[in-house]
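Usage

Read records sequentially. Each one opens with the input sequence:
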Amino acid sequence: MDAGLFTEDAPGKLVPISTKYGGDWAFIPKPLPPRIDLSDLTGAVEEASLALGALDGLGRKVENANLFVRPFIRREARLGSIIEGTVVDIKDLYAYEAGQLKLPGFETDPRAAALKEVFNYVAAIEYALDQTKTPLSLRLIRELHKILMTGVRGGEAELGQFRRLQVGVRGRGTVQEAVFIPPPPPEIENCLDAFEKYLHANDNYPKLVRLAFIHYQFETIHPFRDGNGRIGRLLVIFLLVYWGLLPTPLLHLSRYFENNKEAYCDLMFEVSTKGAWREWILFFLEAIRTQAADVGRRINALDALRKDWRELIKRPRASASDVELAEALIGNPVITYKSAAVILSVKYSVARDCVNRLVELGILSQLGEIKYPKAFIADPIFEILFSE
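and closes with the structure output:
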């Protein structure tokens, strides 16, 4: 790491370390919060808060907003994994969850290892959201890491444990070649103790600015050997709900971070090297503003689609189960007769008839030509969720 890049304004200190390649430097961040003047950031804070408030209002206004949580968690898991270099087809993810690794009609061949990584991220997010009645803790963070990394690449060592080896960030695989070197293992405990204290403390900074501090600090400490980026973004989701900024976990930032990956990494590095908090906070607030508006647009489109389907289903042969299944497609856009029976809590034959009626109406279409097991897809949902 180039120690010459770190100025006297850096919010931390450099310490010498030894590697198998020789001596180097690691960075230890100071405890949060930094002392910065936010007077020229008031407008950006207000814009992000207004966008988040509009999403909050939409979440409270639309009927059964919890229906939208499941697809947006899976959207985040896929996009958040792309940042780490894991790319899967979202339809394959739903097939994986349905117990069918490969369904007929998919254009891509799913990679089991990659799907497992994304599925683990889904499980970690859902577990975290089940814990939002209690404060965030290092214990919970370790539990989330264990869920995230079980049975996937990078999870074979120090599973659910803070690292005991030195690592580097943004290099070609070795510490010596790293652009940034986070704290050495003996310093991690002190860094994380201070981090946890800040999570439970109160200060005068707006909560959205505090989120920017927390995300930077976690990524800079880099407490795990692998999975830090996904856990760091997951903490943002957790705190948005825990702090009451959103009633449901609909806002996720991975799409913005992936679209602006170079700036995302560079701006956090510039905080470390020269204390460029203002630029990082503006970037983080813009991520919140942009993604809140994007999610709101997609929710409105899904809600309109749901209403259109209700009108389409209204006919003499329609049943309450037809409407219920159409609603459930928002969270389960790939289904089989068997999974439909589970969703509706009905007999297989009843579920089969419901699915077939939705096929007749054009709401569902069959995947491929294989007669058994038949699988069906609601393509408009994927178009709304994953179109640019």
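Summary fields computed downstream for this record:
- The CA atoms of residues 219 and 229 lie 7 Å apart.
- The longest strand covers residues 12-19.
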